[in-house]
Amino acid sequence: MTLTDAYSNGILSKEIPTELGRLQALERMLDPVAHEVLGDLRPEPGWRCLDMGAGAGSIAYWLAERCPSGRVVAADIDPRHLDPGRAAPLEVATVDLTREDFSRNSFDLVHTRALLAHLPQRDELVRKAVTWLRPGGHLVVGEFYILPLDDAHPALRTGVRTLAQLMGEQGTDVYWARRVPALLKAAGLTGIQVRLTPLTIGIGEPVDEFWRRSFEQYLPILRRRGTVPGTTLDELTKMLDDSSAADLCWFFVTASGRAPEAPARTS
User: Fold this and answer.
1) Which of 61, 63, 95, 256 makes an SS bond possible with 140, Cβ 3.0 to 4.6 Å?
2) Model confidence over 3-20: pLDDT tens digits?
3) Closest Cα to residue 10, out of 129, 171, 225?
4) Element of type H or E holding 164
């Protein structure tokens, strides 16, 4: 399955009316993490940045505010939710990252969040992203990682496992995040940092909002398939609505590394 197929017809398609709300809930949940990680890199006003799979645009907008004399490319295969007039350095690009490329040494920063795990070419894309970095440039990759669910609430366990299966059918690997630090190291990046953010359902906002919006989007698909009993789906819906159960289902893994500096010239 190509990226075009997955995002035109899959469970994350922007044709689904609820997808924008789900993306915005993801931003509210994870933007504080990204702001801290990216802020530690101290973006300079003239930096050239790429946000791969920019989604609803919050990180691209944040970078554009901090790099007013630079360039910020918000790349997405379906950029309908991105506002190209939001800031002067912002460029919205319609890009299928599995088929298109950027020039070598183009960017001081490449950021991607909740994208690469959905793509079968994920390892190759990490290696390509490294070639897009200027010497000393930074790559930041953020992805979800599912945890074992043997002791979870039964309805939640079924819902999350079935969601992972649905994603797997369109090419997602919900365990891939564990491999990202090794991929960054193998690609030659240095100073690798890893941050784990727990995402616990049933504790409160904004995590609960993201999971409610996600399952609201996926449950109709599960009901149509009939592979999960309706009573289980009803119980899952009730549990999400009233936060009657709490469980640590996922981590969000944010890994970053830096391209080596160019060797000093000798006279």
Assistant:
1) 256
2) 445 556 678 889 999 999
3) 171
4) helix 154-169
